[in-house]
């Protein structure tokens, strides 16, 4: 939510100032304030919708990650391709008590799958489930 506010409020204020410069009247002020209000409501609404549209499913053969508000993105990672699994926590996530789970395959591009906003216990449990399959494949 903070990132949406930090981006859209200055943009809306800038558009309002430009409108005031181009149309020096009460209408420009009303237009600028309307844009600020619309962007503010958007900034409050969008993170909750974005959170509701995230999901993952782990079965015996793959980890499936689904995300996206306007454009749906489905990432399927076969469990046999997973090389390692990381958990990460930035300062804002630590403040809210959340963790990200990063899944890496042999592609070497970075993390091939990311599941954000997990509670630390859930992230660790999912990490252990993914690593248990690696241990079984290695014969440990």
Can you describe this structure?
The model has no long low-confidence stretch (mean pLDDT 79). With 140 residues, the protein is α+β, with helices and mostly antiparallel strands. Helix 1 runs antiparallel to helix 2. Helices cover 52% and strands 26% of the residues. The relative contact order is 0.10. The strands form 2 sheets. Strands 1-2-3 form a 3-stranded antiparallel β-sheet, with no helix packed on it. A 3-stranded antiparallel β-sheet has the order 4-5-6, covered by helices on one side. The chain is built from 4 helices and 6 strands, in the order ααββββαββα. The N and C termini lie far apart (44 Å). It folds into 2 domains: 2-51; 54-138, Roll (PH-domain like).
What are the salient characteristics of this protein?
140 residues; PH-domain like; 2 domains; 26% strand
Lay out the secondary structure:
Blueprint: H1 2-22, H2 26-52, E1 55-58, E2 62-67, E3 73-78, E4 82-88, H3 91-96, E5 99-105, E6 113-118, H4 120-138
Antiparallel strand pairs: 1-2, 2-3, 4-5, 5-6
Helix pairs in contact: 1-2
3D shape:
elongated
Low-confidence stretches: none
Instruction: Estimate what percentage of residues fall within beta strands.
Output: 25-35%
Measured between the Cα atoms of the first and last residue, the distance is: 44 Å
- What is the helix/strand order? HHEEEEHEEH
- How many DSSP-defined strands? 6
Could you say what the CATH architecture of the largest domain is?
A: Roll
CATH topology assignment of the largest domain? PH-domain like
As for the number of domains, it is 2
